[in-house]
């Protein structure tokens, strides 16, 4: 069965800014989804901030295996209730791919628990993403590095929990480095952060960047989907010896 | 200088429930703080849910190196604004020690990003906490295991991110196991979860449990305290070559 | 293409000891390989200590995707040269599944760098392996736990590097716990240690144990195979500014 | 009590090569030990490849809290027996600080289990080591980065197990990046790899590099020292129920 992807985009820059509109006339989410839809075994659809429920209804999420997230200038407009909903689904098993300025999205900070802050500079400088894990599914088909002629710079210290695996480290022309590809598991879900993607540079027109996104969609697809529970199991598996003390009862009922 | 500890307690059971009142007449936080205050180089004070701002004012937190957290039945009454405040401080460097049923507190779930759910049973059964890291500062003075005659059972699967280090694993009489001592770093702060501690068993009258809490207070004290920032650094450290393309500008200002 | 598995066995107990011979008349490796050969997409063959080059010639290893390792009483008889050869292949991408008393094999200690010591007791006691990662490929088809009526006990502290992921934790009737399923990545290869397997208990007649081994064979198959190299790259990717100092040369040539 | 440091050096370049001799007339180990001996609470002594038992007798190691290791051109001359001895001590709790070309030393590869290979270039280029963990004891007193005007380049992929914590990432003028400061725990010992240090550049004349070495000596001092054991514990902690099966005995005695 196909991996069901939903590509979420803030989708504001593309309407208001000529430079962005020229690069992504139908939106960053559209170019990503179009690319994914050409790959075998992936079906992608769109969702955006200004859709009802940000396009992330219970039904949409229930039918999403992997959610891509691109946001930048309107993180604060994403409703907490929707963030709760997405987090719940990730913990149940849904994959989450966070792109570029999505580092500051509510959902990314929620999943990781940290500030996710960094250094940044817009100078159209060169970036080289070194591939530290050539055996990881996310880097399939990628060589020693990906080179991007013009990018926004993100520099360390990136305030994230130590990644389970560090996939890419970037070198920037202006002198900084950055952990540009990082994976974590949370609950039953997989998370991938991928740095490239500024709205005024043609990052999503780069074939290697798109290859990484395709790989990530496949890698992050759920291996299992399980609802959370915190069960009382009053019957022990092994006999419990008689206790000669009565401790009384407290518990939540009396709280 | 002394490690400044604030011991936070929901402090409801001890007022309403005879069994709990008998064990902890002045509250679980009081017995912990009293113990810590007898240790060299530690000063502990109290805070509780029903204090103004839950006892966790900006000033209190600014003067807290390590925060202990015990909650059970009223997690939902902790205001989100105070959770934000505590999270910010942990990321700046403050230590956080989460006890027992605090696994379901807002602050613990916030820091870790997962459900923090588990299995549980109240049957006064025996628990043996195996010490996996005899060289870790948290287990100083602790032998191969700590044995508790009567405890509430917590069983796996505990829905947490893989700990940086697994310190204790519990064996339960009734047949379960649990990752009972776990450490993580988030931002510049250190987090320790320690499982023992149910309100109707005399856990905080156990000398080895108290030794672990003392050790944890010392271990979690900040090594550094840094406010978060996400700076624009327009001046590169290295010269950036001339670019022959004009990409225009987008950025948050136009968002 | 099928996953090519080689099941390596010390294969001494089965010849000398009546109890073991009865359980595994053709050897522990044979029962495992037979099981794997019944699974879709897996082809398994045998190798043993007393074969020429321990059955692990360059050719065999070059055609092995995943190597299973069972040893117990003759770890010291495995030649260092063969250990070097296996290590090299694991670092190139071959999977390695180490079973039970293989914790003390040269190859396991070589890959991990630690003593891999533990506590042990032969008392035919009950073991329950709790499944901490129901979403991991290794636990596919396994429920909350695997129960074994009679096993040798292995207890903590198990002297291993912190696993990348802890898959199973065992509860033992006699009071101990153990990290019974652990995964690591080294080089491009994946390593899985799986505790059950003593030669005098019918562990490899248990369907769930065999399911884990099947899953592990699939999971550990190489995602990539790369020979090691440590290249000099005299040509920089970016221009290096003129330096006004002459440092002379040292380097290995003069060593 | 003072931290007892032994600084081990291959100590060959300094005798044979004029460029190296000029920078380090008494050896790289001497300049490091002299610096450490000026710090409060540290006592450092020297050891070298051509000393009897490479200067690492049982007695020396028994009195060493932290061992520094610098080697380059003669890794193969270090006797395996001495490597065994050092490994044993690290697993018991001794700290190990591996410098620069020590990445290819027998002891480093032994502790980590991987090839520890990398890319390299000698072009006297600029390096900037970004400090990812300003709260870690190893970076005390170090700012956002350390800049070195002229260094040998080491580039990714560095074939190491994922570090427990990544402390420094280097940017190189020629276009590469490198994980230049990494920590791991093995057994009860702490390991720190620190990249800077080529013999023809004045790296150990740099105050910030020396500050890192001082910090590392303090951080890696043992928290505990424990000999390895793998005990049989025939007496269970909990009663084991009667078993109605006789499994016979195998075990190492009959192997």
Structure summarized in a few sentences:
By secondary structure, chain A is α/β, with parallel strands linked by helices.
Description:
Four copies of one chain form a homotetramer. By secondary structure, chain A is α/β, with parallel strands linked by helices. Chain A has a domain at 3-112 and 181-228: Class I glutamine amidotransferase (GATase) domain (Rossmann fold), CATH 3.40.50. The first copy, chain A, has seven helices and nine strands. The first copy, chain A, has helices spanning 13-16, 18-23, 28-37, 58-62, 80-92, 106-112, 207-220, and strands at 3-9, 42-48, 66-70, 95-99, 119-131, 145-155, 165-172, 177-186, 189-194. In chain A, strands 2-1-3-4-9-8-7-5-6 form a nine-stranded mixed beta sheet, sandwiched between helices. In chain A, a hairpin with a 4-residue loop joins β7 (165-172) and β8. In chain A, α5 (80-92) crosses α6 (106-112). Chain A is globular, with a radius of gyration of 21 Å. Chain A starts with a strand and ends in a 35-residue tail after the last helix. In chain A, 59% of the residues are buried. Chains in contact: A-B, A-C, A-D, B-C, B-D, C-D. Chains B and D meet through loops of B and loops of D.
